[in-house]
Structure formats: structure tokens, C-alpha cells
Amino acid sequence: MQPDLKPCPFCGHAPEMLGGDAYGYCAISCQSGDCYVTVTVVRPSEAGAAVDWNRRAAEPEPPVTREDGR
Ligand SMILES: [Zn+2]
């Protein structure tokens, strides 16, 4: 079963997984024609590649809002 992959961090396109456990290597790449940056991670296993692909910079904190609207 293919692990869940987050969308491309640059364009939001769904990435493609190339190779796989049976090949002894696995690459995950954004192949969107709109994305001039190709993000590729290569690891020996699907699970390892997915972990690396899904690792992101920390999400920004949501803005602080006051419940009273002031
Ligand atoms: Zn992309």
C-alpha cells in the first residue's frame, strides 16, 4: 500500500512516486507542468521516502484573535 503523500510544497500538485520497494529505491517527485521546481526525494523504501517527502517546515502559528473582537 502506498503511503499518504502531502501535495507539492510549491504548487500543491499531487506528487508521483517512482520506483518502490520492489526496485530497491523510491523517488517522489512533483511532475506538475506548472511547477518549475521539481522536488525529489530518493530513499531505499517507500516508507522512508514518504517520511522525508512529508517532512515540512513548521506550520506558522495561527494569528491570535481576541474573543471579544477588540
Ligand atoms: Zn510542484
Q: Helix and strand layout, with pairings?
A:
Blueprint: E1 16-20, E2 25-29, E3 40-43, H1 46-54
Antiparallel strand pairs: 1-2, 2-3
Bound molecules: zinc ion.
Zinc ion (ZN) binds next to loops.
List keywords for this structure.
3-stranded antiparallel beta sheet; single chain; alpha+beta; 70 residues; 13% helix; binds zinc ion
Written account of the structure:
This protein is an alpha+beta fold. It has one domain (1-56). The protein has one helix and three strands; from the N terminus they run βββα. The protein has one helix spanning 46-54; strands at 16-20, 25-29, 40-43. A hairpin with a 4-residue loop joins β1 and β2 (25-29). The longest helix has 9 residues, at 46-54. It is elongated.
Q: Mean pLDDT, nearest integer? A: 87
Shape: elongated
N-to-C span: 50 Å
How many helix segments? Answer: 1
In total, how many domains does the architecture comprise? 1
- Given helix and strand content, the structural type is alpha+beta
Strand order of the largest sheet: 1-2-3
Number of DSSP-assigned strands: 3
Main beta sheet: strand number and arrangement? Answer: 3 strands, antiparallel
Order of helices and strands, N to C?
EEEH
Radius of gyration over C-alpha positions, nearest whole angstrom: 16 Å
Model regions low in confidence, pLDDT < 50 over at least 5 residues? none
Q: What bound compounds does this protein have? A: zinc ion
- Helix coverage percent of residues? 10-25%
Strand portion, in percent?
Answer: 15-25%
Brief characterization of the structure:
The protein is built from one helix and three strands, in the order E-E-E-H. With 70 residues, it is α+β, with helices and mostly antiparallel strands. The chain has one domain.
